[in-house]
Amino acid sequence: QAQVMESGGGSVQAGESLNLSCTVSGLPFYDYAVGWYRQAPGKEREGISCISREQKTYYVDSVKGRFTISRDNAKNTVYLQMNDRQPEDTATYYCADDYEDQCSGPWAYWGQGTQVTVSS
Known about the structure:
By secondary structure, the chain is mostly beta strands. It has no helices and 11 strands. It has strands at about 5, 10-15, 20-25, 35-40, 45-50, 55-60, 65-70, 75-80, 90-95, 110, 115-120. Strands 2, 4, 5, 6, 9, 10 and 11 form a 7-stranded mixed β-sheet that branches. Strands 1-3-8-7 form a 4-stranded antiparallel β-sheet, with no helix packed on it. A hairpin with a 4-residue loop joins strand 7 and strand 8 (about 75-80). The protein is globular. The protein starts with a strand and ends with a strand.
């Protein structure tokens, strides 16, 4: 069974950068897409970015131009570089994976999440 683990969360000031990592084990990582989601307090979980097997990338409008998703298949890891963080980016960030090579979901495997807090 696949396992997904996020890391890299923390507290930052507005405008600062943060890089999240998502490491996947238990499936052929290089064959499948990986997605990033976040859930802010009192709000529903939303998809914010995804990278397909062919490294095609997708972003929700609110993070376009600020966040960059990438993958290192040799390390079974997907990264989310977050620049120009804003208080509204405060949320728990989740990584998701499944036996799908495109960013279509739904996702069967989820990490426990990593908390990101942005103060103004």
